[in-house]
Amino acid sequence: MDVFGQLLEIQDDDEEHEFSKTLAFDYITQADATFEEIEEALANKDLDALSRKGHFLKGSSAALGLQRVQHSCEAMQHFGKRRDAHGEGPEVSDDEALARCRALLVRLKKEQEEARTWLEEFFAAEKGE
């Protein structure tokens, strides 16, 4: 909430929060596309792409203060580099890294859906819907 609150504060003086609303809904669209790319990378066993997509979505999530999604994306980034969720430890095999990514994707999708619901409800409440 701290990061999201700061985002609301730095935007223009629009009471409808159009700036942050646009950012949030652009993020949702971007995240949906990135999840498709992650699934494709998993199907192709492309660990480098998984790492890049995790890194990409981590930054977008962080910008909106979606910390659970951000941390899971960071783990995906590290798993794609054949490391543990914190980017440490000995390198694991490609198969082990892919298994970690597959398992994480289940959790990440759930976290993303929760974030989407929260954002949609926040902006609906702001609008008085």
Can you give a write-up of this model?
GO terms for molecular function: histidine phosphotransfer kinase activity; protein histidine kinase binding. Keywords: Kinase, Phosphoprotein, Transferase. This is Signal transduction histidine kinase. This protein has 129 residues and is an all-alpha fold. The chain has 5 helices and no strands. The chain is elongated, with a radius of gyration of 16 Å. The chain starts with a helix and ends with a helix.
Question: What attributes does this structure have?
Answer:
0% strand, 129 residues, mainly alpha
Order of helices and strands: HHHHH
Shape type: elongated
Total count of strands:
0
Fold-level CATH name: Four Helix Bundle (Hemerythrin (Met), subunit A)
Q: Could you list the spans in which at least 5 consecutive residues all have pLDDT below 50?
A: none
The number of helical elements comes to: 5
Into which percent range does the helicity of residues fall? over 70%
Major sheet attributes? none
Rg (C-alpha, Å): 16 Å
Percent strand = under 5%
Mean pLDDT: 88
InterPro entries: AHP1-5/YPD1, HPT_dom_sf, Sig_transdc_His_kin_Hpt_dom
GO cellular component, one term: nucleus
GO molecular function: histidine phosphotransfer kinase activity; protein histidine kinase binding
Domain HPt: 16-115
